[in-house]
Amino acid sequence: MRHEVRFSGFGGQGIILAAVILGRAAALYDGKHAVQTQVYGPEARGGASMSAVIIDDEPILYPEVTVPDIYVIMSQEGFERYGAKAPAEAVMVIDSDMVEARPACRFVEVKATSEARITLGKVIVANIVMLGAVVATTGVVSDAAIEKAVLDSVPKGTEKLNLAALRKGMELVRVKKP
Amino acid sequence: MSRVEFMQGNTACAEGALAAGCGFFAGYPITPSTEVAEHMAAKLPKRKGVFVQMEDEIASIAAVIGASWTGARAMTATSGPGFSLMMENLGYAVMTETPCVVVNIQRGGPSTGQPTLGAQGDMLQCRFGSHGDYSIIALSPSSVQEMFELTAKAFSLSERYRVPAFLMGDEIIGHMRERLTIPDSVEVAARRRLEPGTLPYTAGEDGIPGFPTFGQGYGVHVTGLTHDERGYPAATNPRLHEKLVMRLVHKVESARKEMADYVVTNPGAEQVFISYGAPARSVFQLLHDRPGEEIGHLRLRVVWPFPEFALGEFPDAKTFLVPEMNLGQVAREIQRHTDVPVIPVPRLGGDLHPPAMLAKALEASR
Q1: Which of A160, B179, B260, B268 is the 20 to 30 A CA-CA neighbour of B90?
Q2: Which of B95, B102, B121, B101 shows the shortest CA–CA distance to B110?
Q3: In what order do the strands lie in the sheet with B262-265?
Q4: Is the domain covering B263-364 a CATH 3.40.50.920 domain?
């Protein structure tokens, strides 16, 4: 099974790190193949940021994302540039604090930024909340894999905070599910 | 125990250098190669190696050449404009037979071009960019794992043949992350020491003189001028110059078979893709998507010296299709060695050939 996951937001939200952690979870802890890439330009800071992960049971030959089936969107501009044309079969996880628009495909709303700022006390972990939400929504990697990948990707001393953010993201989605 | 990582190509390149025993890095940061320097800056000092951020790329390659003469395995990494700046001293490295590894994570040119996007526009520059006649070694990785392996191999070849070795990567492979397995140890050929009592530029049959490392008691003169076997300038002696340049070329070209490193798929095919670096990934996809068809693929891991005998691996070839992220630089070399029609499939702009583009080229060539 092949999944193409596209993350978008603005520079500084940790859009690339979120993709790296997801790829790491798949490649190192779920025994899958993963390739992570990013759109990256000299003018990227503060502007729309996009990164992607392909996860597959088979080796990944062509490394560029063609038709994403999972979207993780953290800004309105990111939605407009990288999410608005999501195909009907895709699923999108939206930070509803940051994105006004809604796609034509199935979507899940998560108040990641306010949960990070208020409940967890650090807005910087909003990307990890989103990561928890996307794993809970799609099962694209296992819970155990994403936990391990978060733990070895975040700075020392922030493990507890990031793990709490990840679990918060999972919980926000799972509570909503009937 | 080998170590498994999920790592960027550029970081894997730095890890390959460290595994190969690189002890000296001098460079000037430039997109999209900067992560190589960054990783070396973090890791080298902890291994008693030396990292120097230089004032520019001219100084960077100069420092690398100097470090190599102290016996260090030395490297720099750059891209585009930085690579252009290194050209003069690269000729000096060739003339003085200095082992060194130059990583070029290619970006779109000419000039400042596309700093953050991939290209393969420097394949002829690395081969011919400095003045005069000479030969060098160039390797092109198609995966993060190969960024590691071929960087280590570049050290081995450079040390063995005493010639600059180029790791000709590109932004796509340099910046993507994949699984990387780092082995416990990597074997690297050591440069042969100069036998005491032998003149420093006396070479045997293989054309490679022994190396008189600075600080080990040798008295050596190192010059970019045409020099005799003592290393002394002899720039007005026509036959001596001819003999020296022929030796510098011959020691690399006569080892083409030894250095050749390529992968052959479907040798019975009539239509054959020839690729190196990132576009190989598009060819892989095309072959995978058309399992019933016999489509050949020759993937070069060593591009220079060009292994022209590899074309013979496809005795039934009717067409060679050459996807490159340039206007056909290696295609031109292939044309020199075969009567089979060679069709360049150029892709400019920074992104990979979509597999559909290769399919179209394939259909058109039938």
Answers
A1: B260
A2: B121
A3: B262-265, B295-300, B271-275, B319-324, B342-346
A4: yes
CA separation for the pair B170, B149 (Å, rounded): 15
Environment class of residue B357 by beta-carbon count within 10 Å: exposed (0-12), middle (13-18) or buried (19+)?
middle
Q: For B135, left (φ over 0), alpha (ψ -120 to 50), or beta?
A: beta
pTM value > 0.90 = yes
Q: How confident is the model at residue B342 (pLDDT cuts 50, 70, 90)?
A: very high
Rg of chain B (C-alpha set): 20
Residue A11: pLDDT band with limits 50, 70, 90: confident
Contact A34 B178 (CB under 8 A): yes
Q: Taking CB atoms and an 8 Å limit, are B176 and A36 in contact across chains? A: yes
SS3 A166: helix
Token pair of B291 as six digits: 């399992």
- What confidence category does residue A178 fall into, taking pLDDT thresholds of 50, 70 and 90? low
Summarize pLDDT for B104-139 with one digit per residue, the tens: 999 999 999 999 999 999 999 999 999 999 999 999
Judged by CB atoms closer than 8 Å, whether chains meet at A35 and B6 is answered as: no
Residue B355: its chain A contacts at CB < 8 A? 62
Determine the topology of domain B1-259 in CATH. Answer: Rossmann fold (3.40.50)
| Mean per-residue pLDDT over chain A, rounded | 94
**CB neighbour list of residue B63: distance below 8 Å, 6 or more residues apart:** B24, B26, B52, B54
For chain B, give every domain's residue range. 1-259, 263-364
- ipTM summary value: 0.94
Which pLDDT does position A177 carry in this prediction? Answer: 61
Q: Are B311 and B341 in contact (CB under 8 A)?
A: no
Confidence of residue A41 (pLDDT cuts 50, 70, 90): low
Which member of A34, A35, A64 has the closest CB to residue B351? Answer: A64
| B1-259 and B263-364 agree in CATH topology | yes
Helices (H), A63-158: 76-78, 112-114, 126-138, 143-151
- Check CB contact under 8 Å for A27 and B282: no
The full set of domains in chain A, from first to last, is: 2-111+138-153 (3.40.920.10)
